[in-house]
Each structure stands twice: as structure tokens, then as C-alpha cells.
Description:
Layout: H1 14-18, E1 25-27, E2 32-34, H2 40-44, H3 50-53, E3 73-75, H4 85-90, E4 92-94, H5 95-98, E5 107-109, E6 120-122
Antiparallel strand pairs: 1-2, 3-4, 5-6
Amino acid sequence: TVQIDKSKCIGCQFCAMACPYGVRYLNQEERVVEKCTLCEQRISQGELPQCVAQCGARARFFGDLDQGVDNFEGPAHPDSPGCQYEEMTQTRVKLKDYVEPYAENDIHHLADAGNEPKLMYLMREGRKWRE
């Protein structure tokens, strides 16, 4: 993840204007630019980022592209038989076990604006979740 060193930031906001994804913003109170850290502290402890863990639709999965998209993980679906909230947040499912098979052309990567993004989306027509 890309982190901002607040001790060096002068609040000029040039990086916010240059960000091709619009995720940087000025923290008015501290007068420094901030952005999503992809829950770096949670990831370092083996947890899922908060946006993945709390996605009610179970539409987000997280993983290392070097280990393959099939190995991305997300929390167990709340409709799993007998699944309580605590179990759901501590139990993970792999993408390959949760969605219908997909082809390479269903995987879409963010456009490279010189920053070599590693974020990708699995997009296709209709909803095809496994029961």
C-alpha cells in the first residue's frame, strides 16, 4: 500500500489533484493529505480490510495477486446455516469456492496512470453466486 508521511506533508494538495482515482483528500484539522490505507494495520495482523469484512453484499474479496485471484478471501456469508456474526467475521471463504467459474476476460484491472495499480475487478453480466 502507498502511505503518506504526515511529517513531510505540507498540505499543498498537489498529490490529491494528481491522484487518478480520487481517493486522496485534505484532512482540514491536521492540514495534511490522507487516503485509504487499505487497513494496513489489520492486514499486517492477518485480518481482512474493513471494507471487505463489512461489505453486506459480500461483493469484495481481498488477496495477493501473486498468489492468484482464486485465492482471494472474504468473510463467510451471513446466510450460511447457523452462522453467527462473530463466526462470520472470523470464517473466510475463497473466491473460487464462492462464485461461479469465471474467465480471464471477466477480470478487469484499473488503468495504469503511471502508478502500476494492482486492484482488479471481477465483472460480468448478471449475478452468479454459488448456493
